[in-house]
Amino acid sequence: MTFAHLNRRTHLYLGLALLPWFFMYGLSSFPFAHSQYFDARDAAKKLPLWTMTMDRVVDTPVPGEGNDGAMRAFGARLMNEAGLEGTSFGVYRQSANQINVYAYSFRKSTQLKYYVDTKRLTVEDRRFRWDHFLTGMHARGGFEDERLFVRSWSVIVDLVCVAMMLWIATGLYMWWGLPGHRAWGWLAIAAGTAAFVVFTMRL
Length: 203
Prior knowledge:
By secondary structure, this protein is α+β, with helices and mostly antiparallel strands. It has two domains: 3-31 and 147-202, no CATH class; 50-126, Double Stranded RNA Binding Domain. It has seven helices and five strands; from the N terminus they run αααβαββββααα. The protein has a five-stranded antiparallel sheet, with helices on one face.
């Protein structure tokens, strides 16, 4: 087997293996670009996006600013108070008086808001929407969550990114091996690069 033959096979089977990922990233880009459309549909139907499921006083020590480890532990305590376990979450200080925790999975999202002055904790569940499901898959990543299955997703996303770069490299190699098509290839590369640079500089 020659290198050219191996390269073609690699390009072919990488493209087939990456089909679900290309499909997911491509399809989920539409909700990102047209989020106003989906929000307007909810507004027209008068469907609330968030539904409150808890509102009560929780007296727990609040960490100071600048301590990420303590803040994450605080978020975990709030999650425990709300009866939420085994899900990924992020925590951040909305203001001096409010700390938000966002718990999420592909199918469900919950936001917790803790008001420091009144020691009040509210919990709201977000209604399932397909656009949120897709954009959640598109944006999901990171290694903050130490659970094996969650980290495995992040590892797979890294591998998919590497595979995409390899797929591009094998495609370039095949194109360069066809001298009669190099001019059209250079034109395509130049047009794509020019459009990318113009939008990068203007936006």
